[in-house]
Design goal:
The complex is a heterodimer of chains A (112) and B (114). With 112 residues, chain A is mainly beta. Chain A is built from no helices and eleven strands. In chain A, the strands form two sheets. In chain A, strands 2, 4, 5, 9, 10 and 11 form a six-stranded mixed sheet that branches. In chain A, strands 1-3-8-7-6 form a five-stranded antiparallel sheet, with no helix packed on it. In chain A, a hairpin with a 4-residue loop joins strand 7 and strand 8. Chain B is 0% helix and 49% strand. By secondary structure, chain B is an all-beta fold. The chains are: A mainly beta (112), B mainly beta (114). At the A-B interface, strand 5, strand 9 and strand 10 of A face strand 5, strand 9 and strand 10 of B.
Chain lengths: 112, 114
């Protein structure tokens, strides 16, 4: 059974800092790994998707890496802003149904 | 193009009552999913429908039933609600053909069972 773990559970940083969120998964037979953002009381927005054959993806100030063999991914956020405050969820796609297995998320607070 | 829509947005039930959560997508996606999210946890898959006419259990199916009414609509039914089913329910859809396909999520239904 695929399990996804995210560390830390919560993180508070001052504006402008660079930060790293961590994600690990137990079964390396994945199609892809995604990072989602969830604002309070809202749905999920996909930020980055890394295919299993890729090592990293970048979008603006966000960079996600994938090491499939070790079952790890990191999300790097450069020059953090208060608007980055949200919960960040990592999820892997695996299985014949291509279902998503989610981690429990990292709640990020960027202080002005 | 509304994406994935869910109704209702909020619902309060008493133990033992039944209700149906509705989900519709207008992206011509083959696959649809129902998840629940509990405080401090990620989303857990309840049921999914890989294509019109098929449904399968996910990680936490007990106490729920689903219907794939047509390609656009996928409903989740609670026959006899229990306090343990208090949660936020998300519907998602995708066209899972390649490894770049992502799931698109609705805004969620916040359900409280008293």
């Amino acid at each position: 059974k695929q399990e996804v773990t995210q560390i830390p559970a919560a993180l508070s940083v001052p504006e402008g800092e660079n930060l790293v969120l961590n994600c690990s998964f137990t079964d390396s037979a994945i199609y892809n790994l995604q990072w989602f953002r969830q604002d309070p009381g809202k749905g999920l927005t996909s930020l980055l998707l890394i295919q299993s054959s890729q090592r990293e993806q970048t979008s603006g100030r966000l960079n996600a890496s994938l090491d499939k063999s070790s079952g790890r991914s990191t999300l790097y956020i450069a020059a953090s802003q208060p608007g980055d405050s949200a919960t960040y969820l990592c999820a892997v796609t695996s299985g014949s149904a291509r279902q998503l297995t989610f981690g429990s998320g990292t709640q990020l607070t960027v202080l002005p | 193009n509304a994406g994935v829509t869910q109704t209702p947005k909020f619902q309060v039930l008493k133990t033992g009552q039944s209700m149906t959560l509705q989900c519709a997508q207008d992206m011509n996606h083959n696959s649809m999913y129902w998840y629940r999210q509990d405080p401090g946890m990620g989303l857990r898959l309840i049921y999914y429908s890989a294509s019109e006419g098929t449904t399968d259990k996910g990680e936490v199916p007990n106490g729920y039933n689903v219907s794939r009414l047509n390609k656009r609509e996928f409903s989740l039914r609670l026959e006899s609600a229990a306090p343990s089913q208090t949660s936020v329910y998300f519907c998602a859809s995708s066209y899972p053909v390649t490894s770049t396909d992502t799931q698109y999520f609705g805004p969620g239904t916040r359900l409280t069972v008293l």
